[in-house]
Amino acid sequence: QTIMIPSKLQICLLIAGYLTYLMVGASIFQVLERDEDRKQQAAVLRMKEDFLQNFSSLTPVEVEIFVKKLTEAVRMGMDPTGNENSNWDFSNSFFFVGSMLSTIGYGNLSPKTAGGQLFCVVFALFGIPLNIVFLHHIGKILSLLCERLAKCLYRKGVKKKTTRVLTLLFFLVMGILVFICVPSVIFQVMEDWTYSEAIYFAFITLSTIGFGDYIIGRQQSKRYFPYYRMLVAIWIIFGLAWIALLFNLLTNLLEDPDAKPAEELLPVKPS
Amino acid sequence: QTIMIPSKLQICLLIAGYLTYLMVGASIFQVLERDEDRKQQAAVLRMKEDFLQNFSSLTPVEVEIFVKKLTEAVRMGMDPTGNENSNWDFSNSFFFVGSMLSTIGYGNLSPKTAGGQLFCVVFALFGIPLNIVFLHHIGKILSLLCERLAKCLYRKGVKKKTTRVLTLLFFLVMGILVFICVPSVIFQVMEDWTYSEAIYFAFITLSTIGFGDYIIGRQQSKRYFPYYRMLVAIWIIFGLAWIALLFNLLTNLLEDPDAKPAEELLPVKPS
Ligand SMILES: [K+]
Ligand SMILES: [K+]
Question: At the topology level of CATH, where does A8-264 sit?
């Protein structure tokens, strides 16, 4: 059983196509959402300023109404403290599009206009399959690494069964190290989280659950190094591919407990 | 090509196992999170009460600090208006677990304690594959419906190619009607959303993006009919299976544009 390595041209075209799709989407969302977001953001700040000027002459009931409105605004993604940059700058819009197509969907940013929401549906309908194709290719590369190890071990005279177990162990241990443990150390330092919070964030992100309770790059007091977001994006892409293989492995084990695990490591059919 | 129908016993066991897993998980999360959540919720309400009693004697800077703290509390999932029921009652906990295992991850509720976060990782690691197996079976049932239609048409003398196109159309049109258009009418009425917001919610949920900007059952002014949440849960289960088939179809089209689409409707290999 061998896996076809996609040609370099194919891979380059796919990456270019995927990035173009992301960038075009990010730009369109910016156009659709930016004005409305600014308007809403300005309204919240104005409301707060009004309140700050008059609070001492208000009744408790009026203050309570202010608290209620403030709560609703924060839930809608506004920032009454006025510290954050524009929600829909290109970097944020790009991150939003990526989080949508990977189906992580953190939700710290989401479209508010009817146009943005409609575009969301159409864009994701074709973008999610495109993202799946992209991750399939990354997954193939990871599988190939495992297969190479297996071949190498086999050539050295290791038994087939032992080879299978060792390959599986390599996939699990290396994967957990490279995609969960090591990035979590970086998150712990960069985001001021505890290590267990960082592990939780890494898992919730790569499993595509994406609660959005922890998001990178939002500490206002912190200075992030220049390529931090880009590195995180690369981590997400490879990590998603790895965890998809892991879930595939576990799903196959659940569906057919007698199956041989290492074969499931290579879910892509030979072609 | 025929699809093996899983035996009724298998289906019953799977449903029972899945429901048990969900219910055990929901209970454990309750135990782990309820106290901490109550504490935090009480702290926010106390902070607000303190503020309401003293605001007229505070300086604008102190008021600004209050706004900042309030913003943080709302982002953490607290409710300073004090209207909502306990976050971690059984119904909410169950819905949380379901949203996690389906990887929708709305994020309106998420674990705050280190224990809850750790349990989250372990619970989802095995729960997500279990959920995938479960949805596979639902998907098989949906595929089977399409296959029956195809056989019926074929028997009536319709050409193979026409049969394929008609089956595909049936899958798409009926699916969009049953899983998107009709439920959206209900959401529009029940949640006071516009129809386009309801469509957006339906798609964001079934695609498992789950931004969490729209969530059902949160309108405090509305009375929901008794089995509303249960109906929504059933909609999600069948809808997720349907949209998984749809994405599978689109993924296959992207990977191999020459493939015949109706065969991809039946992604489950004959066995
Ligand atoms: K998600
Ligand atoms: K999500």
Answer: Helix Hairpins (1.10.287)
